[in-house]
């Protein structure tokens, strides 16, 4: 397994695990901002690296390899563990093996019950592999999963290089994952379970089931979001969540603004300056709303 690292010495460690048939490209926008405050580590799961011939075996093997890397480079502890879809399943597997692995965990759009009926695109990936690797058909498949073309060009380039056997193993492992076999009651991390409001009901049921297994977890419903809309499709929203939930930067900024406001109360200010400040505040509010 390969690991892409964006080192920032003496900073806390942030590990993000990508979803099925994706790769490091699915987190490239977040890296630009997160590497300022974290050492960012992106494992490229076996069977997904176009430059390597390692086969995807199963979720447990991936979890062990990432844990070994964390043990070797970070003394067995990180601050944030984040995973999307298949990456979320691997993150859960890691937490079940190492309850005190991290301080925060973000489990995004992750199924934790076996899926009896697979998506038709999963069947096409295996039984019509040549067709699935045609760009026009692959884009059609991509839309059925993500409902938008967040990173289609990167996805297609990566998918085209994945072997049929690896795709089958990845999709089989993803659809067969079962939370019932995992022990999570001793997990010490603060866990955010993220699910899109527009995702299928089974995903929302999985979120409820996962929360029932964890003593310190909270479900965050992502309004009007579908599968992949968060880390893959809206990196700004993802970063905003990390800043508020992990780094507590939003509250710090509010405290700083309140302190400045309190210091200025009672201070003499000419009317023209007061009016200028009002205009600046309105402009800042509009800019914030646009972003």
From TrEMBL:
Alphabetical list of Pfam families matching this protein: Abhydrolase_1
InterPro entries for the chain: AB_hydrolase_1, AB_hydrolase_fold
MF term (GO), any: hydrolase activity
Keywords for the protein's UniProt record, in alphabetical order: Hydrolase
Recorded superkingdom: Bacteria
Residue ranges constituting the AB hydrolase-1 domain according to the UniProt record: 12-125
Entry annotated with the keyword Hydrolase: yes
Protein known as: Alpha/beta hydrolase
Species annotation: Amedibacillus hominis
């Amino acid at each position: 397994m390969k690991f892409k690292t964006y080192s920032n010495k003496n900073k806390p460690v942030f590990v993000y695990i990508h979803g099925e048939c994706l790769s490091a490209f699915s987190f490239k926008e977040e890296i630009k901002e997160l590497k300022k405050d974290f050492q960012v580590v992106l494992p490229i799961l076996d069977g997904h690296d176009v430059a390597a011939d390692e086969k995807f075996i199963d979720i447990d093997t991936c979890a062990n390899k990432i844990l070994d890397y964390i043990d070797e480079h970070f003394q067995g502890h990180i601050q944030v563990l984040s995973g999307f879809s298949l990456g979320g399943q691997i993150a859960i597997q890691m937490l079940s093996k190492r309850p005190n692995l991290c301080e925060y965990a973000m489990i995004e759009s992750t199924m934790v019950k076996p899926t009896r009926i697979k998506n038709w695109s999963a069947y096409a990936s295996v039984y019509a592999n040549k067709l699935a690797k045609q760009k026009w058909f692959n884009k059609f498949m991509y839309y059925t999963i993500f409902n938008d073309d967040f990173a289609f060009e990167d996805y297609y380039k990566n998918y085209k290089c994945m072997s049929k056997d690896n795709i089958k193993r990845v999709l089989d492992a993803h659809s067969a994952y079962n939370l019932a076999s995992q022990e999570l009651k001793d997990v010490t991390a603060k866990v955010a379970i993220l699910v899109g409001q527009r995702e299928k009901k089974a995903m929302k049921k999985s979120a409820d089931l996962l929360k029932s297994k964890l003593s310190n977890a909270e479900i965050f419903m992502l309004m009007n979001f579908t599968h992949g809309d968060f880390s893959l499709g809206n990196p700004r929203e993802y970063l905003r969540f990390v800043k508020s939930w992990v780094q507590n930067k939003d509250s710090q900024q509010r405290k700083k603004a309140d302190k400045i406001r309190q210091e200025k109360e009672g201070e003499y200010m000419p009317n023209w300056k007061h009016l200028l400040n009002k205009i600046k505040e309105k402009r800042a509010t509009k800019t914030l709303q646009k972003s």
